[in-house]
Amino acid sequence: MASSELAIKTENLTKRYQVIHDRPERLKDLVISKLTFRKLPANQLLALDNINLEIRRGEAVGIIGPNGSGKTTLLGVIARVIKPTTGEVYLSGRVSVLLEVGAGFHPDLTAVENIYLNGAIIGLSRAEIDQVREEILDFAELLQFQDMPVRTYSAGMRLRLGFAVATHLHPDILLIDEALAVGDEHFQQKCYDWMDNFRGQGATLGLVSHDLAAIRRVCDRCIRLEDGQVRSDGPTEEVLSAYRQSAAYQEQGSGEMRRR
Amino acid sequence: MSMGMPNSSQSTICWRRQVYSHSLLTSLAEVSRRWELVWALVVRDLKVRYRNSVLGFFWSLVTPLLQMVILTFVVKYAMDVPIANLSVKILCGLIAWTFFENGILDSCDSVLNNRDLVKKVYFPRPALPLSVVVGNLIHFALSTVVLLVWLTAIGCYPDRLFLFIIPLMIIQTLLLMGLGMIVACLHTFYRDIKFVLQALLRVFFFATPVMYPAALLHDKFGDFSTTLERLYMYNPMATIIESYRSALLDHQVPDMSFLLPIAAASLILFIIGYKIFLGHEWQFPEVI
């Protein structure tokens, strides 16, 4: 296996969620099950079902599928936020994940303070952040607002800052979950240009989106998930046209995860 | 284009397996390597707490000072108990107790307050309760300065023994971190924990020599049996507060027969608390 070529590899990745209706119920169940020495009836969701993927360095991969098909869980597992039930993830390089725009921004801190905070969370030193701070503010077009608390920002401004931070903290692998929906056309264009350039330098991009136009614009490979399984994987155009004809696309939004 | 890729990270690229659970030692190593993260979280919490308040940090001094005044009046005049240097004794007890109480209660919320981060970004999660305790340690250290000023003002000059507060601070911090990680974990799953703790802390406020010196119990109950005394002093905060008082006010080396077991217990509690946290942290993003 030429692992040096690969950026991300998943092996038999499976994630089961315990369905939790209410916390106190869990406590009650726990006590009862301990008292009666019986195992709780398993009420589980299968969010990822034996996913095997190989993504090469420099690829831009779009991940599509109906709601609840496991897209966000997949990104979460790759990003080490969610622990898989079984299976392994291998990867090379620094990962930056935009699971949500501006996750970790504190509303009462200014843009600059949030840049330092986010950098520290991702794992950069102060000195490293010093180097990219101006670039981030410049890319987000927020130079004149840098000392305002982020709570006063519009959704678009927060998006710009969030995207700029995630992209400028020097990831080798960038995973984006539904991030660009609120941006205006000008900023979206800027992001697409940035992604092209980012890939040109050998970095890897994963993009989860329902915006198929964006997927077509950015990605050359596409993976369609449904019920936690990979339904198709191949060149973007092929996967997209198959997706449009699929039953899941016809009844968009009604897709529910399989229950066990 | 201006957004060039860095050279630093390119050179460190290596193929690795994602690890989802950590042993105590790897986690401690990761947290100490990422001390800048812990510090950034401490700074964030301090900034957020005091932003838009005029007096800022002074509020954290006003509360114990006010409590000291009222408690001194109650004990000295209303309850008519004559104790020398009562006000400093109370202040000393109060700031150590405030460190304990706020450390525990803030730890409780430390995971829940960072819901977004926990669900969306990878970072060593023990940094959350640890940074909260460090933040409270800073408050405590600054309050200690006020206490030293007060001591000097009333002519009770601290001598070299006051350096004892450094190991005492370390013991109290370990104790708090251990307890803090346990309650942070529990509270994330069951929100009753904070109510339970608030009630318990109120009980322990009186069961701990905060507003009175432990010696008072000797005087009141002549036959205060040794077992009872031991039980009383094995409340770690009782021993810790009495040790602060003996080093700062009485210029005496603290009673090691109590302090050493408590120091060992704090270290063990830190290890146990850390392990409990590590055993459950993977569930946090799924339940909050």
Describe the structure.
The complex is a heterodimer of chains A (260) and B (288). With 260 residues, chain A is of the alpha/beta class. Chain A has a domain at 6-93 and 172-250: Rossmann fold (3-Layer(aba) Sandwich). Chain A is built from nine helices and nine strands. Chain A has helices at residues 23-36, 71-78, 111-122, 126-139, 155-168, 185-200, 212-218, 236-245, 247-250; strands at 6-18, 44-56, 60-64, 86-92, 95-98, 173-177, 204-208, 221-226, 229-235. In chain A, the strands form two sheets. Chain A has a six-stranded mixed β-sheet with strand order 5-6-7-3-8-9, sandwiched between helices. In chain A, strands 2-1-4 form a three-stranded antiparallel β-sheet, covered by helices on one side. In chain A, helix 6 links the parallel strand 6 (173-177) and strand 7 (204-208). The longest helix of chain A is centred in the last third of the chain and has 16 residues, at 185-200. The radius of gyration of chain A is 20 Å and the shape is globular. The model of chain A is unreliable at 253-260 (pLDDT under 50). Chain B is globular and about 70 Å long. Chain B has one domain (55-287). Chain B has 14 helices and one strand. Helix content of chain B is 71%, strand content 1%. The model of chain B is unreliable at 1-12 (pLDDT under 50). By secondary structure, chain B is mostly helical. Chain B has helices at residues 7-11, 24-33, 35-50, 59-78, 86-110, 115-120, 127-153, 165-189, 193-207, 215-220, 226-233, 236-248, 256-280, 284-287, and one strand at residues 15-17. In chain B, helix 5 packs antiparallel against helix 9.
